């Protein structure tokens, strides 16, 4: 009888231990340090140890009730102040990172084993953050850039969409707090991200100047029934004077000699005619009848 009581008590003890474990979870995208080290072989992950990768979803603190800044000490934000996860607080620049576009919309995924009611608050580090320095509350922006309550679960992960912080560049940390309302636990995680400027749309090519088509001459309309003539146009009549002048201008010295000779002949003919006229008048005076 006593053995039976012991067995029942042991079973109840196991159930009590398993109940809080059902609310485990951690960011899947962007991946928390523990979740990313499951598949990464970086020096930071090797130094973090096996416990971080084995219990990547167990960084939880009970009975916080929203008093995060009072309960989680500076320099121990990533471990939630838990000694078993203190390697997650190591100030290193070689933690696995997720590349994000600053100011863009992003779909966050938070891996959870069993759905539970609760709210998410996401903070980002201030400008000038140094990954080689321990994370403190003062290194985070004073207000979360995204808050979500009871998001839907898809394929084993809580999924919600929000806008990433604008004007961020380089290595930063997104600090996620999941405060469950169906259990007394609050979960803490650090996701190392690398912000890059969003892609700019390609510049439009400059418009080419519009060239109007060259106007073409329109042939005159032909009367109805009349076919347009294809015969070549009649050449204009040659001007004899112009032709002679042109020939003279192109004749050179030979043409000048001909002109001079012609002038001499004309003078001789005129002189002969004048002589004959004088002889005739002389005869008439002698013999008028």
From TrEMBL:
<keyword id="KW-1133">Transmembrane helix</keyword>
<dbReference type="InterPro" id="IPR051024">
    <property type="entry name" value="GlcNAc_Chitin_IntDeg"/>
</dbReference>
<keyword id="KW-0560">Oxidoreductase</keyword>
<feature type="region of interest" description="Disordered">
    <location>
        <begin position="201"/>
        <end position="252"/>
    </location>
</feature>
<keyword id="KW-0732">Signal</keyword>
<protein>
    <submittedName>
        <fullName>Lytic polysaccharide monooxygenase</fullName>
    </submittedName>
</protein>
<feature type="transmembrane region" description="Helical">
    <location>
        <begin position="256"/>
        <end position="279"/>
    </location>
</feature>
<dbReference type="InterPro" id="IPR014756">
    <property type="entry name" value="Ig_E-set"/>
</dbReference>
<dbReference type="Pfam" id="PF03067">
    <property type="entry name" value="LPMO_10"/>
</dbReference>
<dbReference type="InterPro" id="IPR004302">
    <property type="entry name" value="Cellulose/chitin-bd_N"/>
</dbReference>
<dbReference type="GO" id="GO:0004497">
    <property type="term" value="F:monooxygenase activity"/>
</dbReference>
<keyword id="KW-0812">Transmembrane</keyword>
<feature type="domain" description="Chitin-binding type-4">
    <location>
        <begin position="24"/>
        <end position="193"/>
    </location>
</feature>
<feature type="signal peptide">
    <location>
        <begin position="1"/>
        <end position="23"/>
    </location>
</feature>
<keyword id="KW-0472">Membrane</keyword>
<feature type="compositionally biased region" description="Low complexity">
    <location>
        <begin position="223"/>
        <end position="246"/>
    </location>
</feature>
<keyword id="KW-0503">Monooxygenase</keyword>
């Amino acid at each position: 009888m006593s053995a039976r009581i012991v067995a029942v008590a042991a079973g109840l003890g196991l159930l009590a231990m398993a109940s809080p474990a059902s609310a485990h979870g951690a960011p899947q995208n962007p991946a928390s340090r523990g979740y990313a080290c499951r598949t990464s072989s970086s020096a930071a992950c090797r130094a973090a140890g096996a416990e971080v990768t084995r219990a990547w979803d167990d960084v939880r603190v009970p009975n916080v009730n929203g008093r995060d800044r009072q309960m989680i000490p500076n320099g121990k934000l990533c471990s939630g102040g838990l000694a078993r996860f203190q390697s997650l607080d190591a100030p290193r620049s070689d933690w696995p990172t997720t590349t994000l576009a600053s100011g863009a919309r992003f779909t966050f995924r938070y891996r959870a084993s069993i759905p539970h009611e609760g709210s998410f608050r996401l903070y980002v580090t201030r400008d000038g953050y140094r990954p080689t320095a321990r994370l403190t509350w003062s290194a985070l922006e004073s207000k979360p850039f995204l808050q979500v309550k009871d998001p839907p679960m898809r394929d084993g992960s809580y999924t919600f969409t929000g806008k990433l912080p604008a004007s961020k560049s380089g290595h930063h940390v997104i600090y996620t707090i999941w405060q469950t309302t169906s259990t007394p636990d609050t979960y803490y995680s650090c996701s190392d991200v690398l912000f890059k400027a969003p892609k700019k749309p390609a510049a439009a090519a400059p418009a080419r100047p519009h060239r109007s088509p060259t106007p073409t001459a329109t042939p005159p309309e032909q009367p109805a029934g009349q076919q347009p003539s294809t015969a070549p146009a009649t050449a204009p009549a040659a001007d004899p004077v112009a032709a002679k002048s042109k020939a003279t201008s192109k004749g050179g010295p030979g043409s000048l000699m001909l002109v001079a000779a012609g002038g001499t002949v004309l003078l001789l003919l005129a002189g002969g005619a004048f002589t004959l006229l004088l002889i005739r008048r002389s005869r008439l005076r002698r013999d008028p009848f």
